[in-house]
Amino acid sequence: MIEAKALTKRYGGKTAVDGIDFQVRPGSVTGFLGPNGAGKSTTMRMILGLDLPTAGTVTVDGRDYRGKVWPLHDVGALLDARAVHPGRSAYNHLHSLAAANGIGRARVDVVLEQVGLTSVAHKRVGGFSLGMAQRLGIAGVLLGNPGTMLFDEPVNGLDPDGILWIRTLMRSLAAEGRTVLVSSHLMSEMALTADHLLVIGRGRLLADTPLSELIARHSAERVEVRAADPRRLTADLRAVGARVAVESDGTLAVTGMGSVGIGELAAARGHVLHQLHDVTASLEQAYFRLTGESVEYRTPVSALEAGPTSKAVPKPEAVSA
Amino acid sequence: MSSSASLATLPPPARTVSRTRRARAVLAAEWIKLRSLRSLPVTLVVAAVFCVGLAALVCSDYAGHWKDVSAADRNTFDPLTVNFGFLRIGVLFFGVLGALVVTSEYGNGLIRTTFAATPQRGLVLAAKAALLGALALPASSVVCFAAFFVGQGLLSGHVPTVHIGDPGVLGHLLGAVAYLTATGLCGVFLGVLARGTAVAMTSVFALFLMLPVTVDELPHTALWRYTVPYLPSNLGETVWHSHTTGLLTAGPAWALLVLWPAGLGTLAALWLRHHDA
């Protein structure tokens, strides 16, 4: 369990983390989500006692990290996969970490095996790919078999295989009852990995919510219907209070009535339906809505819309009622 | 995933542990890091070759050209000073060596992993300094004694020489060893304060090479008297050199030579305690 109370970090005049309160509970993956520069890494460094809070406190299992005698038995963290000396072997890197916390050599072999680096254990880390370096970092997290684990942007720069591997690993670690906090700036990644979300922007906590709730809140915004006789269906739907917009290709965009209700109404009135499906707002959109104001260095909206993200935004000109 | 199974195989972490047990663990960790750093033995070998080589070069040059040396220069000729001139430059190797022990962790961010594993930062610093000392002491002994025997061997038969049994000679030899070791320790602590290899090297060069030359240009007023003799390079000069006017005597110089790394070490420990990693 990680607990932050009024946690604040200021660098000179700049506030990186602005009095946030949160709890990260065991048994689930908690996603720490926010744009770059939102304060995720600073918060993680404060959890690990690396940066000192300007105000407030943060504890792991009720204790200040700096007060822990053998911290790797309680907390494992992957902050930066490239934070290794390139001339050292993977084995020696882990061996020194293990020795610092009274962990035996046998455990080093176990975690190397676990992350699949046994065959390159005695190779210089400088020659590792980013994926291998991430695996080495994760071996360091597992070393003390801790109950709390922190991962800072673990999937950055990984290939799909590596992403899937880390995602599965984090979920299974949480399933074993551990506290897992993973930061990311990618909502899509969090949607697949996290059970609970802490959304942070400009150092402030914007949301502290189960993922399922976030999905529910933003799901089924409208139902798309294609029918043999769209005009008659539109009239019937409007008669029962639904709002219907007719798109150029004849598809009906229905709001204010669920797909179940539409299907039953259609059956009762003898409509032939070709298509009936829920259109959920993407979590990406939910995320943009939450963090939109808090992105520190933003691109003008026009530039954003020209980019690939605009595909997720519904075409406004199609809606009329 | 076999982590549940391995949960049982790890001994439960002891909440309370003796300070010596904790310190031993940190020392072991730092030793593993030190011996797996390739730049360290390379720097050591280069330093040894450079120092002994330079001593041999200077001594053989004196031996070969003694007949060209003026009578005045012959009168002031000191075989030990000539032999140990390499210390003025060779000391930089030891400062850099000490700095490397720390700065090899700063550039790549490894220092954060180190402090996450051992939040007792003072212990980490003490372990690094102890290991550097344990490495630099025998290394500088080998360098100084080898340079002495090679140098005096080359001088003998042509020019005046000293013997290790002569009064004061062993003291100066040990002074040279202490100077190099103390500089190595200063390098460790400058490495912490500089937080990077480039800045650390510059500080070592500035403190041991440029600053002494610069302030020596000052007129010999109070300003000179209260700065120049206290610079580590000049304290070193006092303890390895036979005689230098204007500098401290051997006793206080030895004490202050110990105080330099102690002072820098205190600063470094305070810095680590109060700053973000």
UniProtKB/TrEMBL annotation, chain A:
GO terms for molecular function: ATP binding. It comes from the Bacteria. Residues 2-227 form the ABC transporter domain. InterPro entries: AAA+_ATPase (IPR003593), ABC_transporter-like_ATP-bd (IPR003439), ABC_transporter-like_CS (IPR017871), P-loop_NTPase (IPR027417). SMART domains: AAA. Keywords: ATP-binding, Nucleotide-binding, Transport. Belongs to the ABC transporter superfamily. This is ATP-binding cassette domain-containing protein. It comes from Catenulispora pinistramenti.
UniProtKB/TrEMBL annotation, chain B:
The chain crosses the membrane at residues 42-64, 84-102, 123-149, 169-190, 197-215, 253-272. The keyword Ribosomal protein does not apply. Keywords: Membrane, Transmembrane, Transmembrane helix. It comes from the Bacteria. Pfam families: ABC2_membrane_4 (PF12730). This is ABC transporter permease.
